[in-house]
Amino acid sequence: MNAERVVHVAVVSRDPVMRMEAARAFDAAPPAWHVTMHEEPPPTADVTVVTPEVEHAGAVVFDPERPEDVLAAVSAETSAPGRVIVVTSPSRGTGVTSVALHLAALARRAGPACFVDLDTTWSAADRLGLPGDARTWADAGDALGSIEQSALPVAPGLRVLLAPRGRGAADRSRVAARAAGAFERVVVDAPPGDYLRPVLEDAYCCVLVVPPTIPSARRAHEFLDSHRGLRWGVVVNRLGPGGEVTRAGLQRVIGCRIAVELPCSPALRDREDEAGLLTTPWSRWARALRLLYMALENT
């Protein structure tokens, strides 16, 4: 939290005993917190804390059994959200999941990172070798920290929020924003769909994965034209051998510069068959992706 910003913390309680216990818990609050006591939630508070007899959506609940936890809970509510990178494509089958997973693996070197899967049709569970009944972001409740508890640990030191199969668009439009409250870096695997616009608009920057064909480049041009005003990094992913379209030719059709061109990588395919990530540092594919990640971080 920025120490110079005054944060209004409203403590709402209708029980005199609970009110006193909550007040004592805030004796150690930072000087920048302006703590006030109320019987009804005020509309202007930055954070609202309620004692158990009060119900208020989105409020931090004071636990009299663990009064010291309330300071950490309020601090989490006032801290700056993590940086969100959304990886998407105008069509499926372009390698979005692999790009997003490996960007998340790079991001975790700078701090806590999470891969967020928004593909409710297929889910990334199979790609990662996770069971079909593994926890998903649909299992996370509204309580503080529940989204972090639903993020599964996978190698190499990454946390993953899987998508449930068959859930509607409304359920996934705010998952990335919630994850950003728990992790410093969030990389989102976002398949195309009507739900996508608010996810893109909330992101720090976006990555568009495009196969090296003229029809795909045309679709990419239309897609970027319909999502103007966002920070984009365009990636050409050469999924297999063949194809003579040059980078310059693709750039002319897409209408913008290509950030990186990912080469064919049999080693990556082998790791996908093993439900793992490519960690070989001398791989041309991995080197190109590192360049992309560095460019995104410096955007």
Question: Quick recap of the structure?
Answer:
With 299 residues, this protein is α/β, with parallel strands linked by helices. It is 33% helix and 19% strand. It folds into 2 domains: 7-78; 83-297, P-loop containing nucleotide triphosphate hydrolases (Rossmann fold, 3-Layer(aba) Sandwich), CATH 3.40.50.
Structural class: alpha/beta
Counting DSSP H or I runs of 4 or more residues, the number of helices is 12
- As residue ranges, the low-confidence spans are none
Total number of strands: 12
Order of helices and strands: EHEEEHEHEHHEEHHEHEHEHEHH
Beta content comes to: 15-25%
Instruction: Assign the CATH superfamily of the largest domain.
Output: P-loop containing nucleotide triphosphate hydrolases
Quick one: biggest sheet?
8 strands, mixed
Q: Work out the helicity level.
A: 25-40%
Mean pLDDT: 89
Distance N to C terminus: 23 Å
Number of domains: 2
Strand line-up across the major sheet? 7-8-6-9-5-10-11-12
What is the CA-atom radius of gyration, in angstroms? 22 Å
Q: What is the level 1 CATH name of the largest domain?
A: Alpha Beta
CATH topology of the largest domain: Rossmann fold
How does CATH name the architecture of the largest domain?
3-Layer(aba) Sandwich
Overall geometry comes to elongated
Question: Would you write up a description of this structure?
Answer:
By secondary structure, this protein is an alpha/beta fold. The chain has 2 domains: 7-78; 83-297, P-loop containing nucleotide triphosphate hydrolases (Rossmann fold, 3-Layer(aba) Sandwich), CATH 3.40.50.300. 33% of the residues lie in helices and 19% in strands. The protein contains 12 helices and 12 strands. It has helices spanning 16-25, 69-78, 96-107, 125-128, 146-149, 169-172, 175-180, 196-201, 214-226, 247-254, 266-273, 284-297, and strands spanning 7-12, 33-38, 47-50, 60-61, 83-88, 113-117, 152-154, 158-161, 185-189, 205-210, 232-237, 260-262. The strands form 2 sheets. The chain has an 8-stranded mixed β-sheet with strand order 7-8-6-9-5-10-11-12, with helices on both faces. A 4-stranded parallel β-sheet has the order 2-1-3-4, covered by helices on one side. Helix 3 crosses helix 12 and helix 9 runs parallel beside helix 10. The longest helix has 14 residues, at 284-297.
